[in-house]
Amino acid sequence: MPELPDVQVFREYVDATSLHKTVDAVAVDDGRELHRVSARSVATTLRGRTLEATVRHGKHLFIFLGAGAPRWLRLHFGMTGSVRAWKAGRPDDVDHVRLLVTFADGWRLAYLCPRRFGEIGLVGDPRESVRERDLGPDALDDELDRGAFADRFHGRRGGLKSALMDQSVIAGLGNVYVDEILFQAELHPKTAVAALDRRSLGRVHGVMRRVLKRAIEARVDVGRMPRRWLLPRREAGRGCPRCDGTLQATNVAGRTTVLCPRHQQRVEV
Q1: pLDDT per residue as tens digits for the range 134-159
Q2: Which domain holds residue 177?
Q3: Does the pTM of the predicted model rise above 0.85?
């Protein structure tokens, strides 16, 4: 599932390929990804408008349409979504197009969603959308410092991994990057949030920001990530890249979780 680093890469891709272009035509697939909007509304709203800027919050990408209402196109990528731009024709490897925007200069921008768990919507203001979905602060928000991060977990029960994946606590983290964060922070995913003091939570915050920024720099390509990270070898039975342990798979909050039981110790209350 695309997480914060993936969506940030999508955002930068849209910025590089599709901004300041006027929309000439819009095609919506069968509309299963549409959220509180019709295919006709999406087409008539976008046609003639210009994509002016982008904003990301957590796993949501917002594209500013300039003057007029509604003012933003919202994209959520579900489990397998992505974006792709090209000019003339249609690349052979492009499939599962759910929204296709054709610009006046001939370029096209497609929203792809093979497994159909994504969303396409129109909103007046990204902040309203964030509030409606009860999303917590973005994991890379500059205002989310160590203290504010620790405050988000105050009084929470349950395990640390579940809390980090809760979008109402922190927006943008998912199964894969939480595994990496806890691997580097040397904490077991099932460690109780209540067992961690503010200093420990502050350390998780620092690791989180470092991991997310480095993943974005690597363009979410595991081959470009540090060799001592979990992601390049995230598979049970393989050797731990940080110690002499063996990676193990378990289930946490219904998600397959990979960890090293040797250096990721479970902290008890």
Answers
A1: 999 999 999 999 999 999 999 999 99
A2: 146-259
A3: yes
